[in-house]
Design a protein that fits this description.
There is one protein chain. The longest helix is centred in the middle third of the chain and has 13 residues. Helices cover 32% and strands 23% of the residues. The chain is of the alpha/beta class. The mean pLDDT is 79. The chain is built from three helices and four strands, in the order E-H-E-H-E-H-E. Strands 1-2 form a two-stranded parallel sheet. The protein has a two-stranded parallel sheet with strand order 3-4.
Length: 98
C-alpha cells in the first residue's frame, strides 16, 4: 500500500486537507511552488485567451477507487494513453480564485 500525492502551485493559500486514514495507508504528500502569483495569473490569462485545453485520456473519480487507479498506472506502463490521466480527488467544482 502507499503512494505519493503531489500538490503544486498553492496560489490561493495553503489550504489542503489530509486525513489520518491517508497517513495510515502510507500515502506521502509532496508539495512544490512554481513562480509568483503574477506569473501564474499571466499564465492563466494566456491559456484562457488562447483557449488551450489539456488532452485528457481518462478520469478516475475518488482515491478509494483503487482498481481504476491501478489501471491508470497500467496505461502509463503500456503507453496506452495519449493525454493526461487524471485522478479527481474532490467533487467540488473548480473556481477561479485569482
Amino acid at each position: 500500500a502507499g503512494g505519493v500525492i503531489v500538490s503544486y502551485g498553492m496560489t490561493t493559500g495553503p489550504k489542503l486537507s489530509y486525513s489520518m486514514s491517508a497517513v495510515l495507508k502510507n500515502i506521502e504528500l509532496r508539495g512544490s511552488t512554481m513562480g509568483s502569483r503574477k506569473e501564474f495569473h499571466d499564465m492563466v490569462d494566456y491559456v484562457a485567451k488562447q483557449q488551450i485545453h489539456p488532452v485528457i485520456s481518462r478520469v478516475v473519480h475518488g482515491l478509494e477507487n483503487l482498481k481504476d487507479i491501478d489501471d491508470l498506472f497500467e496505461d502509463m506502463k503500456k503507453g496506452n494513453h495519449f493525454g493526461k490521466l487524471v485522478i479527481q480527488v474532490s467533487n467540488e467544482s473548480p473556481q477561479n480564485k485569482l
